[in-house]
Design brief:
The chain is an alpha/beta fold. It contains eleven helices and nine strands. 38% of the residues lie in helices and 15% in strands. A five-stranded parallel β-sheet has the order 7-6-5-8-9, with helices on one face. Strands 2-1-3-4 form a four-stranded parallel β-sheet, with helices on both faces. The structure holds N-carbamoyl-L-aspartate (NCD).
Length: 298
Amino acid sequence: MKHLLSAGDLTAAAATEILDIAAEMAAVQGREIKKLPTLRGRTVVNLFYEDSTRTRISFEAAAKRLSADVINFSAKGSSVEKGESLKDTAWTLQAMGADAVVIRHPASGAPYRLANWVNGSVLNAGDGTHEHPTQALLDAYTIRSRMGRIDGLRVAIVGDVLHSRVARSNALLLKTLGAKVTLVGPPTLVPQELGDVSYDLDALLPDSDVVMMLRVQKERMHSSYLPSAREYSRRYGLDGARLRRLPEHAIVMHPGPMNRGMEITPEVADSPRSTIVEQVTNGVSVRMACLYLLLGGK
Ligand code: NCD
């Protein structure tokens, strides 16, 4: 594998290899000295055209813990603001000898273009409403470590599915790994083509092993998809009462950033059933595994 552009490109065997290597990376993260010499002398560029907290820091931590040199580029304050194109920026990165480029971009498909313009590996860290494969991998890792397996689990992905690259990548990857995925939300926000669909969260809860809540992405909504925030929360928000309708063993996930009080209440987000903090921790190990495999570090 040269690039990581879509979760749909991963076979079950390839995804499982990433999760297994991530588990080895996680063991290193428990040590006092967290650094491995694996990618010494290699250069990883973080190219972020869109805001990010967790993903950018996580990729940076992952690359540094593998001893790579990391260059952080954010579009704000760069020549992008002077109108420089992605192609010209790509040539600049190429000239600097980037071995891997991690890209987040508001345009769906931008990482595919970039992969044609640089020699190094391209990792998609979120492109528009399209995909976010490392998020799906860290979510799969989190499910596997909490539940012991993924195969056969019933996963509900709830909320603004239409605008969510997290939902798209998770639907693809979790199905590849044998889960039964249902996409849940108001009809205006749930596309039909990703898999099984439900508009009734309450009916689905008692039959779910994993509930993955999504952020309502107001910045990507260019028309009115929702009657009101309150109506949305009333039907699709996860609160304490809904949490108690889940089976005892079920877990609650959210990729962050959360709109607390909209799609999830603080009571649920901070409950022991929530894996939100673990997802962030696991993100570093999973991204270490991805960089390791793509850059062929030994
Ligand atoms: C997500 C993203 O940016 O796609 N966040 C993340 O990477 N953890 C989800 C979101 O923005 O809602």
